[in-house]
Amino acid sequence: MNRSRLDLHGAPYFFVTPFFLLFAVFGFFPLVYTAWVSLRSWDLTGDAGFVGTANYQRLLADPDFWNAMLNTLGMFLLSTVPQLCFALVIAGLLNRPIRALMLFRLGVLAPIVTSVAAVAIVFGQLYGRDAGLVNGVLGLVGIGPIDWQAGKGSSWIAVASMVNWRWTGYNALIYLAAIQAIPRDLYEAAQLDGAGAVRQFRSITVPLIRPALIFTVVMSTIGGMQLFTEPLLFGQGDISGGSLRQFQTVAMYMFEQSFQNFDYGYGSAIAWMIFLLTVLAGVANALIARRLKGGI
Amino acid sequence: MRTTTRKALAATAVAASLVLTGCGGGETGESADGTITLTVKTFGQFGYDDLVAQYEASHPSVKVKQENIAKLADYTPKLQQWLTAGSGAGDVVALEEGILIKLMAKPDQFVNLLDHGAAALKGNFLDWKWQQALTPDGNKLIGLGTDIGAQGMCYRSDLFAKAGLPTDRAKVGALWPTWDGYLATGKQFAAANTGASFFDTAGTVYQNILMQQGDQTYFDRENTLIAATNPGVRKAWDQTVAMIGAGLSGKLQMWSPAWNAGFKQGSFATIPCPAWMLGQIKDQAGPENAGKWDVARVPGQGAVRGGSFLAVPAQSKHPKEAAELAKFLTSPQGQTAAFKAKNNFPSSPQAIDDPAVTGAVNEYFSDAPVGKIFGQSAKSLKPVYLGPDNQVVGDGIGDALTAIEQGKLGPDQAWTKAMNDAERAAGK
Prior knowledge:
The complex is a heterodimer. Chain A is mainly alpha-helical. Chain A has helices at 2-37, 54-60, 63-94, 101-107, 110-113, 116-126, 133-140, 152-180, 184-192, 197-208, 210-225, 229-234, 250-260, 264-295; strands at residues 40-43, 46-50. Chain B is of the alpha/beta class. In chain B, helix 2 (49-58) links the parallel strand 1 and strand 2 (62-69). The A-B interface holds A 3-4, 6-7, 10-11, 14-15, 17-18, 21-22, 25, 43-47, 58, 62, 124-125, 128-131, 147, 149-151, 236-238, 240, 243-245, 259-263, 266 and B 1-2, 4-5, 8-9, 12, 15-16, 19-20, 76-77, 80, 83-84, 99, 102-103, 105-106, 109, 253, 255-258, 261, 267, 391-392, 395, 399-400, 402-403, 405-409, 417, 424-425, 428.
């Protein structure tokens, strides 16, 4: 009897250990080690000892960090809000009987297959100051030429457009899957009651795919906090994100401090701050989600 | 059933031990027959293959292993890991100038080459190159110079002709004995309305002017920030701002696609060019522009951008032999050979005067005698003390100049911002 008890109670733990071991080595250890480094003064020449919370105090008073935070938030809003709205509309359209449905459904996924570096380089060219396509088109209607990298707003729009282009289709497919799980008879009943397509979408589709909506918002939040490659390549690899840090994200600022200024202690403090803020955003999301769910 | 469980456990344990011991393996560097192996770590292209073969032939008891990481950006963090971990750095490491300046703050990580007879070699290096790797008290030398980014002023002779300026490189050089002369020429060029700007971006011009302003820039030898009070910094800044104000800058960010395309399209007429940039210009401008580019002297007294050193980490098991190898590779003959192999411009006056270097001409640049032009520029430069936080302060000032170019800040605002940023970067 002992044997089978061990099997029942012990075996499952053994089967899941590989994940936890890998997580311990590649997830948990770096997390803890970064926290330890963030309490020390550590630069290229080596570890100069424990400094307590000095790195964090410096961080809270660092205007460049808060500037990066503002940029991250700005680009996050400019990318997430339009992105999810468009994705919802596209999902609604893809759910209708149209010609070559499969082609369109696969088509919206194409941007996600494209390498992010390639996207950023092509968009960087489109937003070129002297010979960029965007300025060319704007020039036809008498606007411009805009130096996209020079302004905060213009650079945010440019970076957000890359993110939107890449992720809209992905979110649309998630919504589509959720929409197809909605029972058809709800729509039929609504139709009998005289509800039009827009009314059906608003009153049936959107409320019933709420879990999918919450999931995409959480994923976008995490992605938004880690925004790095697009703004970096938009600035031609300039880690400070423009002459006045117009489009430097927090991830870029962490990289700049750690691997350009070799201030590892401070860089680690920034990394932990990003982690804490991401957790905070996640908790906020969860709370809002719970209230929304309760409201159904 | 029991065996299954045990197997699962064993498998997990094996997986764990694989993961945990993934990074192991040591090097002793000494084999049974008494020959030792010296590991040389470099980045980019140092051109040491022939030299290493030569050294092994004349030192039968020494084997040299070369390890190279292509990109400096990948090499630097690795180097930091090796130094922190106390192993892995090998016996001879290449240090790029920016890193060397930082590491000078903690010279204990390297063998003092003065203990290995390096003092006698002082005359083999340009004075400023020697000083860069010497601690301020003069007691410790952590590196021996390899190459330097000696600079000339590259220019488009076709655009100069269009603007009614001389095109012959001696006459062009005579236009700008000083940076004021360069500014005056630029104004003349701009007045001719060729459609091109006079130079690509203000940052590099500023850097060149700055390095000619006395023996210190942002920091004094006690590493106190003096950027705001050093008249040299202000002079370089003012002169650069005057050039931006005169509309001479093309406002092109270095390495951007527009900057690259500018070489082919002729969107700027001059660019301060280190020796290694000639290849870049040739590639970007393409064969159709052969003979349109030329090289003249740089305004003022010499100019250099970047360069490297060889050092022996304190963790080396064979410091004496490693120092000998470093001395050999950085000798005038070694530097001449590296120049022949990969065009790395030497930091040794003897090598600079070697016929192989002085006779070097560049076909693409209208057969310009680049060896002579760059050599002159390198030899007339005076030593400048930079300080470990030089780069971050310099980056801030470069960004402020870009903000002026973009019309985002006025010159006074930009100066205040640059000085505040410098204060924060240095005072952390």
